[in-house]
From TrEMBL:
PROSITE patterns: ARGINASE_2 (PS51409). InterPro entries: Ureohydrolase (IPR006035), Ureohydrolase_dom_sf (IPR023696). One of its GO terms (molecular function) is metal ion binding. It comes from the Bacteria. Belongs to the arginase family. This is Arginase. Pfam families: Arginase.
Amino acid sequence: MLDAPSNLGLRQLRPGVEPGARRLADALRARGLVERLGAVDAGRVEAPPWTELLENRAKVPGYTVELAARLGELLREGAKPLVLGGDCSILLGAMLALKRRGHYGLAFVDGHLDFRTEDVDAVAGEDLAVVTGRAEDTLADIDGLRPYVLDEDVVAYGTRDGSTAPVRVIDLDALRAGEWAVPPFPYWVHVDADVLRLDAVDSPQPDGLSFDELSALLARLLGGPVVGMQVTVFDPDLDPDGSVAEALTACLVGAAEAARPR
């Protein structure tokens, strides 16, 4: 389990207020996630300080390289990393690390498609666009490796923002109706907590998966050729009694247990 407590991809919640997603890892660790999963503690990749929107954007490439290097070490050791964010911009580090190793897919579990390509600013709102090659070179072409994942190797699950992208999309209604697909290559799993019916995130919206639905979805994905997973955007500052942290921890533990071979 590796912490990536970066807020660099997020806007301020309101004037002068930094989001609390960088405390996600601390909140889930405090609920015993490492021990309950029986995971090996891989430490932490510290992010630069969150300051101002465009300054933060300029810091993302350097942090991406640092995170990718650490993930590369873990992957070479044969580990399947669980990365605790942070915001969705940490996806760049994961997909860069995998692109350096070969050909991989992406299972993108998120309430939004994060495919903004115009009026860009906060990277967490465009992470899927970036990893599929649609951003400035400093973000999308590190080491000349654009794109980090091909459109046809991405499946997005649970979206409900009405946006579109040139990837396979199984939106919330389709997912509940039983539609299913997985990437055609071993894949990384991205989980944004706003796929849940949840207020403790930076961009809440109506409806969303229940914790039981998310656990079942993740168990199904983890039962396939997954190479690692990340969890992002849950904001402990919006969870004063810790109930969401406990529910999310139980959701992840339940998914891992359900996916283990019998």
